[in-house]
Amino acid sequence: MVTIAAIIYEPGSTTKNKTGSWRTFRPIMDNKKCIKCENCYIFCPEGTIYEDENGDFKINYDYCKGCLICVNECPVNALTSIREEK
Amino acid sequence: MMNKKQFPREEYFAPGHRGCAGCGASIVARMALKAIGRDTIVVNSTGCLEVFTTPYPETAWKVPWIHTAFECAGAVAGGIERAIKALKKRGKYKGRKLVVMPISGDGGTADIGFQSLSGALERGHDMVYIMYDNEAYMNTGVQRSSSTPLFASATTAPAGKISKGENNPKKDMAMIAAAHGIPYVATACISYPEDFMRKVKKASDIEGPAFIQVLQPCTVGWGYSTENTIKIGRLAVETGLFPLYEIENGDFKITYKPAKRKPLKEYIKMQKRYRHLTDEDIEILQKNIDEKCKLLGLE
Ligand code: SF4
Ligand code: SF4
Questions:
Q1: Where in the numbering of this chain does the 4Fe-4S ferredoxin-type domain appear (chain A) (predicted)?
Q2: Regarding the domain with residue range B8-296, which homologous superfamily does it belong to in the CATH classification?
Q3: pLDDT in tens, B42-101
Q4: Contacts of B24 in chain A (CB under 8 A)
Q5: Could you say which residues from 85 to 104 on chain B have a Cβ atom under 8 Å away from some Cβ of chain A?
Q6: Is the preceding omega at residue B217 within 30 degrees of 0, hence cis?
Q7: Which of B151, B162, B194, B269 registers the highest number of CB atoms within 10 A of its CB?
Q8: Which of B11, B57, B230 comes nearest A47 by C-beta?
């Protein structure tokens, strides 16, 4: 059923769609090397890098599409990539 | 300043959207919303961003959002702004500044939405208009727009034996917006988030129309691998091809000056849309840039 005027009532509901399945490469974060420059955090087109309760950056693989922008923009190579295995 | 968070942690743009891996347009939306915050009303005309963020019945937006036809982001945004004013007179939204943010691609801004944008700027509606510029109609398959740069190949301006791709220079939308005499105009690039977000915030604080043209590389249309979106944007600025500036109440100011401009060739060589170019062609483009940079004081 289409709502009147095609209104969508649930903000941010694309989260139902797990784009992690798109990945061919997986970025891996090494928190020991990370200097928290926030490059990966701000450049991720999915906004899928987040800070955990310890203030460490983590990747949410449910949505990471594996573009590897984060790997490319990390100044200290705290991010690397491996081929995704299914 | 130790451990101070550079960028706000609130997210108003959800993952799960259907943007391509490495999409520059999503980066524009995410950064702009972080800069303004939750009291933003987004007016999104047809284009990539609109299509991939709202596959019905889902939406990636966590702020009020409305889709408009290609032609009318300026007009719809103007109407919303007047409605807010009228409601405020009746006591609604006390003490809140609601920011109306039309966001359209280069096609929706420089071509199809141009007249309604020009009207909105001239009438002086309080809004932050964002033009996300990926230099062609990417959503429908890389057709050229008036923002496609000289010699770039597009499906309706293909490079071949006779043609070198697009045969007109890129329309200078920021300067055209500035010619309306509005209080704030800026150029920006997603590779410089501090600069872009500062400009968006400033634009939202200013009364009256503000126009920001933000360059965002596109993996599919420009032809490069996904991890290079930010790198290519940076090269566009470092070569002087896309200078970052702002014009506040008529005062022009460069906001980022590359220490030494890089040769344009570095930028060109990374993109398939330019792969047909010879060294002589690149030389022509380099000369154009040198002249423009001279005018803007970017030696
Ligand atoms: S690979 Fe791309 S989508 Fe995944 S975390 Fe890195 S920047 Fe985000
Ligand atoms: S880019 Fe690298 S150093 Fe910077 S926050 Fe991300 S992982 Fe840490």
A1: 25-54, 55-85
A2: Thiamin diphosphate (ThDP)-binding fold, Pyr/PP domains (3.40.50.970)
A3: 999 999 999 999 999 999 999 999 999 999 999 999 999 999 999 999 999 999 999 999
A4: 45
A5: none
A6: no
A7: B151
A8: B11
Identify which of B245, B240, B242 has the alpha carbon closest to the alpha carbon of residue B261.
B240
| pTM, entire model | 0.96
Average of per-residue pLDDT values in chain B: 96
CATH code for position A30: 3.30.70.20
**Closest CA of chain B from A40, distance in Å:** 11
* Residue type at position B260: K
Q: Is B47 helix (H, G, I), strand (E, B) or coil?
A: coil
Residues having CB closer than 6 A to ligand 2 are A 29, 34-41, 57, 73-74, 76, 78-79
Q: What is the pLDDT of residues B98-114, one digit of tens each?
A: 999 999 999 999 999 99
Contact B24, B31 (CB under 8 A): no
Domain residues for A74?
13-83
Please check whether residue B98 is in contact with residue B36, taking contact to mean a CB–CB distance below 8 angstroms.
no
